[in-house]
Amino acid sequence: MPFVSGRLQEEVKTGALFVFTNKRRRLLKVLYWDGTGVWILTKRLEAGTFFWPRAAADGQTKLALNPEAFAMLTDGIDMHGAKPRGWYERA
């Protein structure tokens, strides 16, 4: 994973999740090393966008999210207002 090791200066094989989004924030990609290979998971929204946390500094290329923040990101929770995004619907 050249982007992770090169630009982010991180090692993929640490067991961490590496999460990326596109400009429109309708697509989420997650890279995960399970000890035998890399998992690539994707989620594309049919409507709405993912809430993406703001970086603390301009030009910052990476953020650390705790498990709760990652769950909120994938579940459609706006972390600023702690409310579901417009597309979020739980059955």
Describe it for me?
With 91 residues, this protein is of the alpha+beta class. It has one domain. The chain contains 2 helices and 5 strands. β1 and β2 form a beta hairpin. The longest helix has 9 residues. The N and C termini lie far apart (36 Å). The mean pLDDT is 79.
Reconstruct the topology from this structure.
Elements: H1 2-7, E1 17-21, E2 27-33, E3 38-44, H2 67-75, E4 77-78, E5 83-84
Task: Give a quick precis of the structure.
With 91 residues, this protein is an alpha+beta fold.
Pick out its properties.
single chain; 3-stranded antiparallel β-sheet; two-stranded antiparallel sheet; 16% helix; 91 residues; globular; alpha+beta
Poorly predicted runs of 5 or more residues: none
- Strand and helix order: HEEEHEE
Beta-strand fraction estimate: 25-35%
* Distance separating the two termini: 36 Å
